[in-house]
Amino acid sequence: MVRFLPKKFPGKVAEPMIPFYAAGLIVLWAVNSGANAMMASDEFKNDPRNPNAKADSKPAQH
């Protein structure tokens, strides 16, 4: 039988990557917190692209 895949590599893969996974989660948290803070700021809270913007009393025109 011909083996298409090489032998299993005996080294650790996930354990040395734990600091990178942790740093990725911290960066994602920081970006999310920054985006939420910007959406709540005075400059952007009434922007129509903001999902948290107050809806106008006018109906949407299609």
TrEMBL record:
GO MF terms, alphabetically ordered: proton-transporting ATP synthase activity, rotational mechanism
Pfam families with a match to the protein in the record: ATP-synt_J (PF04911)
Region (Disordered), start-end ranges: 41-62
Keyword Cell inner membrane among UniProt keywords: no
Any GO CC annotation of this UniProt entry: proton-transporting ATP synthase complex
UniProt keyword list: Membrane, Transmembrane, Transmembrane helix
Statement: the UniProt record of this protein carries the keyword Nucleotidyltransferase: no
Transmembrane residue ranges: 20-39
Protein's UniProt name: ATP synthase subunit J, mitochondrial
Organism per entry: Exophiala mesophila
Lineage: Eukaryota, Fungi, Dikarya, Ascomycota, Pezizomycotina
